[in-house]
Design brief:
Residues 1-20 are annotated as: Disordered. By secondary structure, this protein is an alpha+beta fold. Helix content is 27%, strand content 32%. A hairpin with a 4-residue loop joins β8 and β9.
Amino acid sequence: MPSDIPWRGRTGLPPVNNGVPEHGRVPKYFAVARQVSAMLADLRPGDPVPTERELVEQLGCARETLRRALDELVLAGRLHRTRGRGTTVAEPKLILPLVLRSYTESLADAGMSPQRRPVRGEVIAAGPVLAGKLGIANGDKVVHLERLLIAENEPIGLESTYVSLARFPTILEDFDPTTSLYRTYVTAYGIRLTTGQEIIETVLASPREAQLLGTNPALPMLLMHRDTWDEAGEPVEHVRALWRGDRYAVTTALRG
């Protein structure tokens, strides 16, 4: 498999014809991105890449063209920018399965260290859409738990979970937001999640979300909306999770 394709997925094939149109003409930044990407084959994750001045001299391109190429490689998850460290080779994307289990369990199974950092815990009034998802009346009280999802000390996602206050009246006192919420459902309330539905789309982060995740607002994100039900078919939670597109990918099994 070619190693110089700048936006080749970490787990997929390169674009057809290596992304080059049939007429063979590509933008200058695309060609430069392929050249820089080829250099990364000799580097390890975390290694610094040459400076802009060095790359401009080596590749013989304009600085503006180089910057566009580097931006594309950052968006593709090949490069990572950090204040104080500059631009480095990015770690491989974290690939987690789409299954009905907690983030903590999925990350632990992948051999990584999961962490959650609480951002907000509050009681709000449900609007008509949220009320419908939770099977409650419009205006009923809902608990909102917002947490930052961290893998190997790096923020990769921002998760908001909404549950009915009537069903979980003491969850703000019972639940340690640095641990698994699914485990709390079982141990404190005897509730097990049995079915769920998830919708995934691509979005851009809001300025607040980008600040919490420490990313550029232009970075593509994966937005997941998940609704889950218990053994009796009653709705338990609605989750809105925003995942960094440069650090996170999903996998699922398909059966006919």
